[in-house]
Amino acid sequence: MSVLLCGLDEAGRGPLAGPVVAGAVVLPEDFPLAILNDSKKLSEKKRLVAEKIIKEKACWGIGIAGHEFIDNSNILQASLHAMKLAYEMLALRLDGWARDNSITYERVSAIADGTFCPDIACECSCAPKADEAYYPVMAASILAKTCRDAIMIEMDKKYPAYGYARHKGYPTAAHVQICRTLGPSPIQRLTFKY
């Protein structure tokens, strides 16, 4: 009987618009670890390839906290909430995934990237730069980033003037300027400074 390590990470703390998205991932022993890295260090193409393999082989969950949740609480609480949702999605799938992969386990232990842990139903520790040191956290960072990017590309179709497909809501000069010119978009984080 073993302890399964669940990695937790988020994407989207710094943008001025859109949600914060978290991933939760437990990797099987035979996972091809060479495809993993901190999502920020991978090209978009490599992230998308890794995302597909993670979703095929690993047990995973995604959690999303929208711009209104961020404005009503704060970005830290929204990030922790998204991690909690991601873990809960993973937990619902875990027993079936473990059975399908002939994995027996005693319990789950989680590690979250950063300096705070979400309130989840297992032992959790946190570490700054965990997305550079722990493979399950790398995988979680990839799922969070690819999911959030996909959301922002969809938002670009709804609000094309804001250029979300290009900058994904991050505070580029062009993004800040268009917000000052047109006003905030419907997915803007109104508590963030422009």
Q: State mean pLDDT (0 to 100 scale).
A: 96
Largest sheet: 5 strands, mixed
Uncertain spans, ≥5 residues at pLDDT below 50? none
Q: How many helical elements?
A: 6
Radius of gyration: 17 Å
Class derived from helix and strand content: alpha/beta
β-sheet strand percentage? 15-25%
Order of helices and strands: EEHEHHEEHHH
Distance separating the two termini:
52 Å
Q: What best-fitting shape do the alpha-carbon axes yield? A: elongated
Can you list the strand order of the major beta sheet? 3-2-1-4-5
**Number of E-type strands:** 5
In helices, the fraction of residues equals: 40-55%
Question: Concise description?
Answer:
The chain is α/β, with parallel strands linked by helices. It is 43% helix and 20% strand. Helix 1 crosses helix 4.
Describe this structure in words.
There is one protein chain. The protein has about 190 residues and is of the alpha/beta class. The protein is built from six helices and five strands, in the order ββαβααββααα. The chain has helices at about 45-55, 65-70, 75-100, 135-160, 165, 175-180, and strands at about 1-10, 20-25, 60-65, 105-115, 125. It has a five-stranded mixed β-sheet. A hairpin with an 8-residue loop joins strand 1 and strand 2 (about 20-25). Helix 1 packs across helix 4 (about 135-160). The model has no long low-confidence stretch (mean pLDDT about 95).
